[in-house]
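Worked Example 4.2. Read the sequence first, then its structure tokens.
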Amino acid sequence: MRGEGQHDVRFEGKWDVMDFVLVHGTAQSPEGWDPLRESLARRAHHSVVVDLPTEEPELTVGDYTRSAADQVDGRVRHPVVVAHSGSGVLLPAIADAVGAAAMVWLAAYVPDFVGGRSLIEEIQDDPTALFDPDWIGVNPVADHRAARRFLFHDCPDRTQEWALGTLREFAPAAVYGHGPVPERPGVESTFVLPTADRTLRPDWMRQAAVRRLGVRPREVDAGHCPHVCRPEATADILHGLRPGAPA
């Protein structure tokens, strides 16, 4: 029997166990992953949650990547790395650092591998191409009414109240100002697209998945935080992944 954290993702006809590394987004603490972690555990999967440094906006991609890799070190092998929302800017680097078998973009920003623009440059070009116009300029961490409206509108009342306690700001400003490497990541990707998202525009995410990652998104009837409001549906998608499966 394998010890905890020593799982290996291999293609042997089926996957009984997978390891997941979960990277929180820009408005939640690591505790925001708790519903999804529990759903994955019921499917016999193991999760490691990364806690990225906050209040240090000058940190680089390398700084965040080293922090994530240090937290993951030795606990998993060939994990599936899942990044939510704005942490999509860090996903390729973290996945590479931890030897990921696959990446999952969960309602996440996908860097402009084609045009080489940074997130800031994309926003300057046309913010409403990426974001719902009503979301622009909103801070859900400071305004719980905004959090209810934009992040947790599809949650049951009890879940919504709990989710408000997970709010925490994470703004890697220096990373947002740097363009990505001008090539698509080599590790296979899955994009999970919540069709009722009120922050990132679903049509933008759909196009980004196809044009920037070369994949068709997996859609879920949820808002911007399906790991909170639809953890079972999200876990079903992750449970069905087949990293490294032959075509």
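Now turn to a second chain, presented in exactly the same format:
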Amino acid sequence: MKVIEHINNAKSTLFSFELLPPLKGSTLQTIFDTIDPLMGFNPAYINVTYHREEVVYRPGANGSLIPTVLRRRPGTVGITAAIQHKYKVDVVPHIICGGFTQQETEDALIDLDFLGIHNILVVRGDADKIVGKFEAKAGGHRYAVQLVKQAIAMNKGAYLDECLEKPNPTNFCVGVAGYPEKHAEAPNVTSDLQRLKEKVDAGADYIVTQMFFDNSKFFEFEKHCREIGITVPIIPGIKPISLKEHLSILPRIFNVHLPQELVTDLEKCADNKAAKELGVEWAVAQAKELKEKGVPSIHFYTMGKSDNIVKIARRVY
């Protein structure tokens, strides 16, 4: 079933979560160990992220540093298929611009279609860690809206090879990302909202947001989206604090605002165990209010750990 169908058929707020592919050299059991404790809450769907290649510098024979391209995490397509096969739950792989040509993207979408996976979340992808900015691969997409358009074109039977005879259309439900506090690279909120509307106008079925810790930011974002004509469902994304270091890491990496009350309480935590418990309490309060306001689904970012998500889900669902 498509995500949008889950939302349209739901009688209450849905539960979903996001996983990271395991590091290269790990096994699928790593993923299953994260999923198993959460299956009791009947997730409507599970997201699996995609990570572009990375460049690391390794010492050469003469002492110079040689750039080496590697992928730290295995491909998302195979992991998505394995999860859907084992748990009989809908899985939403992330499809990214970074590191892929349009042809490679089309090939991945064809593979997903053959596997009976008809949900995707389209995102641009992270900036290159070495260069410090996003750079598209030659022949690839620079913006997520271009990737949305490619997926929607395939849904209409339009492939890159125009010589195909009577190509079968794909059947993807397309989700996109939204940023309640604006994307870090956007010049202002108005511009960021316009870019989001372009993705929806291109055919996106729903929006899932970046993490936030102040629900008023989400409600304001939702209001602004409706004011400019965005009518698709907007799903809030929640990530519980789990480390004291998140006090500085999360604002810097994800461009999110931490409410002063949360900052004060986190600074008082004696260790990471206390910080994790505080994160659970804060996320429970967030999720309960969001659920009371009737959001279609709450999407939890696990970051590969599910014990704190289990504690939250028990008190919310």
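Notes for the reader: DSSP finds eleven helices and ten strands in the chain. The mean pLDDT is 90.
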